[in-house]
Specification:
Structural class: alpha/beta
Shape: globular
CATH superfamily of the largest domain: P-loop containing nucleotide triphosphate hydrolases
Number of helices: 23
Number of strands: 8
Helix content: 40-55%
Radius of gyration: 24 Å
CATH architecture of the largest domain: 3-Layer(aba) Sandwich
CATH class of the largest domain: Alpha Beta
Length: 456
């Protein structure tokens, strides 16, 4: 496969022949079509190295003869072999017969199974409903749709993928798709005049799972297709599962007719994990990576990566990979990875975490500094314009930068969720109307964090 060979040659220049020979040329090429390359890593360490060092490069550099990007799919040899044969959507091949139009669905992470989902008392009911859905096919369509919401890092994607894994093992046609992927499929199908293939793919599924429906905001064509796809599947009693970072009522710029349908079945919540539960997440993942880890190092990760479980797991994976690469494992063994060693290995990620993490408190403090008022004025009950506008801007920033639910913002500012929604809409209206005061004030608040690109 010439494109891959050329890419490897380029990497030999950038990384060195030995590095490419060890980490890239040992990847097994499973198959290749016009826009997709399927590779297999020999173990999780090779896969982690690829994700950290190569993934971004292939996204920008690996193209076919028509200068179209080639998507690389990486699996690990012998990872969950019993389910590996059924890890791809059963219907995928039937939608690849048009070379110019390929519906490539999102892959499932082999780690994301019910066995690896960390138990939490406050999330027990939600997990039980999803698990029961996979154990009894008669449960499919009883609650339709199932709408799952919760802040980032609470395990929504893990639970959705675990459900997809389990249902696919029963030979059901399950489509798991991120909202961005669904949008890409709609746009490509419209552009290439292949809407019939798109509709056949999505509407012939037994179970449709869309992850991150909040990302469909302001995408009218995508929302239109989801509306009709939803109706078709619902009429046929096919199970629909949706997930977002907020409840249906709190979705912004989503058509009311869609929001009402999202509430037809059952709405479930996942709450953030506490420290003890997050520690179990680290232990589970470390065991999966065959990396024994000391309790003190677990505490170190918990204390230094506080923005969510995603950053924490990213740090753990970096610790595993880098400790192998720099020989720390050979010198000390896994249980010999001490806090000073972990701190040295993860110094860049720690700095990034400290620099980029944004909290509601930082937003309120920055807003107060920009307007020259006290924090108490922003979270207080004052109704003068000197207090109201900064308060609305702080609420808007919490909503759009932290994706906080309206109810949580209301608790922070001592307001009900309808007041928060009204405030956010007011600021958005000002931005849409090019209100100079609102635009300059918001820019000044964001400048406090150096640039909007650094706010996560």
């Amino acid at each position: 496969m010439r494109a891959w060979d050329e890419f490897l040659t380029l990497q030999e220049i950038e990384l060195g022949i030995e590095t490419v020979q060890k980490w890239l040329k040992s990847l097994k090429v499973l198959r290749f079509d016009a826009c997709n390359l399927f590779l297999e890593a020999k173990d999780s360490f090779q896969a982690l190295w690829f994700e950290e060092h190569i993934r971004q490069k292939v996204l920008s550099r690996l193209v076919n003869n028509n200068n179209k990007k080639i998507k690389v799919h990486l699996t690990v040899a012998n990872a969950n072999p019993k389910k590996a044969k059924k890890s791809n959507p059963p219907s995928r091949q039937s939608f690849n017969h048009h070379p110019q139009f390929i519906l490539q669905f999102d892959d499932l992470d082999p780690y994301c199974t019910f066995d690896h989902f960390v138990k939490s008392e406050k999330n027990a009911l939600t997990e039980k409903i999803f698990y029961n859905l996979t154990q009894n096919s008669s449960e499919l369509g009883v609650f339709n749709p199932i709408y799952l919401h919760g802040p980032s890092g609470t395990g929504k994607t893990h639970l959705l993928m675990a459900t997809a894994h389990a249902l696919r093992s029963q030979n059901l046609r399950v489509i798991y798709s991120r909202a961005e992927t669904f949008t890409d499929h709609v746009v490509s199908a419209i552009r290439m005049g292949e809407m019939s293939i798109f509709r056949q793919a999505y509407r012939n599924s037994d179970v449709l799972i869309i992850d991150g429906v909040h990302d469909l905001s302001k995408k009218s064509a995508t929302q239109e297709e989801l509306f009709h796809t939803f109706n078709t599947l619902h009429l046929e009693n096919k199970q629909i599962i949706l997930a977002a970072n907020c409840s249906p009522a709190e979705l912004q710029h989503i058509e009311p007719r869609l929001i009402s349908r999202f509430e037809w079945g059952i709405v479930l919540n996942l709450s953030p994990l506490d420290r003890q539960e997050l520690a179990r997440v680290i232990i589970h993942k470390a065991q999966f990576l065959n990396f024994p880890i000391h309790d003190k190092v677990i505490d170190f990760l918990l204390e230094n990566f506080t923005s969510g479980s995603k950053s924490m797991i990213r740090a753990l994976e970096a610790l595993v990979l880098r400790s192998h690469l720099n020989g720390q494992m050979d010198r000390h063994g896994t249980m010999g990875i001490t806090i000073p060693i972990a701190k040295q290995i993860l110094h860049d990620l720690i700095k990034e975490e400290q620099q980029y993490v944004l909290t509601p408190e930082k937003i309120i403090q920055a807003t107060a500094e920009v307007f020259g008022i006290k924090v108490e004025d922003i979270v207080g009950k004052g109704q003068t314009r000197d207090c109201v506008l900064p308060r609305q801007l702080a609420m808007y920033t919490c909503r759009h930068k932290l994706k906080m639910p309206f109810t949580k913002i209301g608790e922070l500012f001592g307001k009900d969720h309808s007041t928060v929604m009204s405030s956010v809409r007011q600021i958005q209206k000002g931005l849409d109307g090019k209100d100079s005061e609102i635009m300059s004030s918001l820019h000044a608040i964001q400048k406090k964090f150096q640039s909007t690109d650094q706010i996560q």
